[in-house]
Amino acid sequence: MIEDVPLRARGRPRDEEAKTRILAAALEVLEEQGFANATTDAIAERASASKATIYRWWPNKAAVLVEALREAVAQELPFPNTGSLREDIHLQLRNFIKLLTGRRGRIFKAFVAAAQNDPEVSEAFRSVWVRPRRTDAKAGLERYRGLSLRHEVDLELLMDVLYGPLYYRLLVGHAPLTQKYVDALAELVLRSIVKKP
Amino acid sequence: MIEDVPLRARGRPRDEEAKTRILAAALEVLEEQGFANATTDAIAERASASKATIYRWWPNKAAVLVEALREAVAQELPFPNTGSLREDIHLQLRNFIKLLTGRRGRIFKAFVAAAQNDPEVSEAFRSVWVRPRRTDAKAGLERYRGLSLRHEVDLELLMDVLYGPLYYRLLVGHAPLTQKYVDALAELVLRSIVKKP
DNA sequence: AATTTACGGTACTTAAAAGTTTCGTAAATC
DNA sequence: GATTTACGAAACTTTTAAGTACCGTAAATT
């Protein structure tokens, strides 16, 4: 066994609590102001930290916000496992709109908006949020393949059909994201993917 | 008959050609730079116009870009009418991704991004583009209701299921918008909305 | 104790872009 | 021909925010 020696550096160690405060503040400001309007001054002030401290540990504003997003969504929205395809999908969509209509929804909007002007933010949003959620959901659905789920169904397409309409409403805002709506969406999609006995 | 007298004002009349140049330039700059990075200086220079002329006729930058969008998309994407529900949907989605993967796609991205930080841009995008297209498509589909289209299908939901996945891919960028993809999407959706004989 | 690195606070530099103003000139009406 | 309104060009004002630099101080190692 190799000892996990911290190998502490020489001077004063990094203030981990300040790091936590900065990331939490970044998330709040992002939520309230959007990506472009989330200023480092506002983040520093809310965190009771110095702007110099922020730039001491992150190369730029986007890096702070990306790390804040990563920490915030790390454990969010695990795909359910009720044993029923229909129940799993209903639950997953209901849980997702709870996120989208809450604080997190504003954060997602902010990131998608920023992604249109910055390829790095775009890639970060996909790798931190989109891909992990899709991978998890696909694994959850794969269990039903050939059983209640028709074996030919393309799960990539299915992800788009389930999540696409929700992002669409979130970002375009032409209609609200209600439970009634996602239930109807789930039923419409299920009609074309379930294996009839 | 009342004469349509132009009721010309006193001084030099507005240069309609300059107006055209400005709107065309605005569209090009928007396409290349996005909404926030589309500067009035760049628009003026490309239009060989003066910035003062722009602000003489539009209250701000957003108003110019909204009018440019309105003119650009006025006649775009009419819903097909082949007599076949299946053909109409396939055609409509194929035509739509032609727009999204071309110059117009960049413009839509820019508007959706800007909409997240500006309610007026958001409303403008919906009223200029989203609502007219949805209304037209719903009218086109309504003709099939009770025939090849199951009579219970909610067209609002259907719009979201058809267009949502495309906006989703456009804005998140996790996968490309190909004809093969929209054909598969169309077939998946059709499976749940067609009336079986 | 000397040294090293981090901290919060604050002032500063720099850059970019929105919108305004001015100026000399062009095209219309009266 | 006098007046009115529009034009392009360019200089200008103003605002905003990113990122840097410096201060005195705090917490660690040597």
Question: Can you walk through the features of this model?
Answer:
Two copies of one chain form a homodimer. With 197 residues, the first copy, chain A, is mainly alpha-helical. Chain A has nine helices and no strands. The radius of gyration of chain A is 20 Å and the shape is elongated. The model of chain A has no long low-confidence stretch (mean pLDDT 95). Chain A binds a DNA duplex (30 and 30 nucleotides) through helix 2 and helix 3.
* Beta fraction of chain A: under 5%
Rounded radius of gyration of chain A (Å): 20 Å
In whole angstroms, the N-to-C terminal distance of chain A is 56 Å
Tell me, briefly, the overall form of chain A.
elongated
What average pLDDT do the residues of chain A reach?
A: 95
Biggest beta sheet summary of chain A: none
Q: Which assembly state applies to the chains in this document?
A: homodimer
The percentage helix of chain A is 55-70%
What's the total number of strands of chain A? 0
Order of helices and strands of chain A: HHHHHHHHH
Name the largest protein-protein interface in this structure. A-B, 43 and 43 residues
Reconstruct the topology from this structure.
Two copies of one chain form a homodimer.
Chain A: H1 16-33, H2 40-46, H3 51-57, H4 61-73, H5 85-100, H6 103-115, H7 119-142, H8 155-172, H9 179-193
Chain A binds a DNA duplex (30 and 30 nucleotides) through α2 and α3.
